[in-house]
Every structure is written in C-alpha cells, then in structure tokens.
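Entry:
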Amino acid sequence: MTYSVCAIVCAAGKGERAGFDKNKLLVPFENSTALEKTLSAFDFPLIDEIFITASARDFDEITALCARFEKASVVLGGNTRSESVYNALKQAKSDIVLIHDGARPFVTRELIENCIQSVKTQGSGVCSVPCTDTVAVTENGKIKTVPDRNTLCQIQTPQGFFRENILFAYERAFDSGETCFTDDSSLFARYCGAPTLCKGSPDNIKLTHPQDFTKNAVRCGFGVDTHAFGKAQDYIVLAGIKVPAKSGLIAHSDGDVLCHALMDALLSAAGLRDIGYYFPDTDEQWRGANSMDMLARVHGMLQAQNYAVQNVSIAIQAEHPKLANYIDQMKNALANALRLDPTAVGISAGTNEGLGYVGEGKGITVNAYVLLK
C-alpha cells in the first residue's frame, strides 16, 4: 500500500536558552540557517507536504525563507509546542505525519526513511538513542534513585504516526485541557498506547545553547615551505628538535621548515595572513628566532578567534638526513605546543627518489594540513 507523508517542522519557539535576540532557527548557521538546513533534509520525493509552525513575530520572515521549498506551507503556531503541532495537524492531509524539531538540522534521510518505515509496519516510529551516561532522579539537589540505564533511551525527532491516530490523541488531550506536552510520543502514549522506537543518531542533536551553533564549524588549511641547505652548522631543526645533518638550513630564523609550513597552514585555515606578514625577514627581532615560539604565537592568534586545532598532518620531503628516529619526538613536541593528543599529529617523511632539488639534496620541503574547529 502506498502512503502519503507529511512533515511538520516545529519552528514557533523563542529559543531563549540560545541567547540570541531572535529565533535561533533564523540566525546564520553553516552558510544558511538551521531552519533551512532542516527543511532541506525533508525536501525529497518521499515527503508530500511540509508544514512549518511559526510564531506571529516570525511568520513573515519564515514565510519568505520557505518560499524556495515548493512543498512547504507556514502555519501560525500557538503558545505551546503542542498547540503549534495541533494547528499543523488540522491542516495536514497525508496518511503519515512526521513531527520534527526545527532545531535538529542534522537529521538524515536515512533516519527519516526509517521513521516512515516504522510507522508503516508498527503504527509509529520514534527516533531514539540508548543512554550512555548514568541518569539519576534527583530531589533537592541530591540523588534519589538511579534507574538502570539499560532500560533508558534519549528520545529524538522525527516522531512518526498515522495522522488519524496522532490527531485523535491531540483532540483528546485538548478536550481534557492538556496542552503542554514536551514531545508527541508522550502524548501518543497517553491516549493511543506505547509508541514504537526506531533508530536515531548521536549526530541528530538539538541546537539549544550558544555553543551548539559553533561546534560543527570546521576549517581546513594547507601550508608548504622550503629551505635550502648551506648554513654552517651540523644540524637542522624540525618541530624544535635538533637532527644531526651535514649542514643547516638557510633562513632568517632557525630554519625550522616544518614549523613554518605548519604555521602557514594554521593561519590559512583561520583566514589570516601568511607567516611572512607576521614574522617578516626584514625584522631583526626574528633573526635566529625559535620557530616553536613563533608557533606558540600563531596558536594564540587562533585561540583569540575561538579556534581549536583538531589534527595536524605533515609530510616531509628530504633526501637527507634520515628522520625515522626523530618522528616521535617531533610528534610529541607539536602535540605539546598545540595542546593535542599525540595521536592527532601525523608526520611522514620520504625522499624524492633523486629527483629535483630535494632529490639532489639541496633542500627540504614540508607540506602541512590542519583542521580547526
């Protein structure tokens, strides 16, 4: 049997805990807004109609935002989430209704399709994930009881039902004066029976607090640097580690070609200028400077912009000296400098098979890739 499907997206709240001066679903988020990202997830052929609940304050803005979604219609919400959903339910025509929080923009098509299938086979489908933390019932700031977490799960959305059943539950609830349920599964359980759980996802988070709107913003950066041999010393410096060599690397600073490539990658990822801008070779204060100190300055610049380094991947091209015995020391030095676990720092070293200036032993080139969050 073929069923038509409707999605109701709840967007009529204020989102006060997010701390914005407007509806959190309408602030810039990942190159659009959270609401647009959520609607895009439901905008595929299995979904026949989409209703978005909106407050009177946001009605015009949400209507304009939804104009590019052909299946979308905006419904005036109520004073509570339940009132808003009820208003949308009364306009829906489809056989199956999926009710979803607009603040869960990371819902996937797989979750949506699983929810629909659960409704078709079980009469309902409520996305959920098992509890991994211990959960306690508290009273006056003290733990009263600790339920077995193996019997607990975290309820998410979408939550799917046959429209006639969930509409019946809402009508009964409103006839009884109950107009404030935190979700639809609890209302369904009260008036229709126990709903069926279906697989949710830990990634299907609800945007609630200010940090939720930045935690998924990532930036990647690439940097490359080359230095020639020829300095009158018997070592080179890589990630602050002295490595015995026939001669040193020529540079204004200490010639740490690895650090220089890494700094450029970090600065690039943050949208800043290159190391030549911040540490020019025309400035005497950087003559012979320790590049690890310069790296610390760059790291501080990133922290000032609220970026944290997630991982670093570095490839060294050098015909000599042999570096295998120094890789772990380099990894640990960079991990300490960037406050990372050593497993988040990858360093590989290889020759250039005798080709080019690297293969001829004239210099060293380092490529660095970073990910910021």
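The chain has two domains: 5-213, 219-372.
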